[in-house]
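Chain A, query sequence.
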Amino acid sequence: MSHPFTIGRTYRNRRGEYEVLAIHGDQMTIRYQNGVEKSVGVTLQARIWENIQADEASPPPRPRRIDDNDGLDTQPIGDLVQTVLATFTAPYPRDITDQVCLAIEQNPEWLARYHSLVEHFSSQGKDGKRTVNTSIGWFTKSFTGMVNLGRMANARSQLIQSYSELGYPK
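Chain A, predicted structure.
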């Protein structure tokens, strides 16, 4: 049986580092750093070890940017929401999405970023305003740790018409 293991050497799996103590056919005995010894399948551990090696050899994914051709990157919207939310303190109210939009409206720099994002997504053949507004709602929910309460409310902000009320999970 072909495998990458040598008795006495150290390897890793999802539970941590281990030393190979013995190999008996398709089973091997390993000892984790905490002293726990286990009998494990050689084939499965070989696959795990190879996957770990492949993950470490792969270059990290390239961060997506707003000027990428696919136009699907909403991270700049998330960056805007994160900047705005930093001006609020938790616990957040149910209308936090509307309040984020109101704050964007009232800050000329944020409003310029908002319009730039709408223009960007529109230039990609999308409904730019809808893409940005939907993403503002999604990022607001995500960053606050709140959940959608399933109730729509009319917005005070001029950027959106309505929003989903958010609340904290029980």
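Confidence is low (pLDDT under 50) at residues 66-71. The chain has two domains: 10-57, 75-167.
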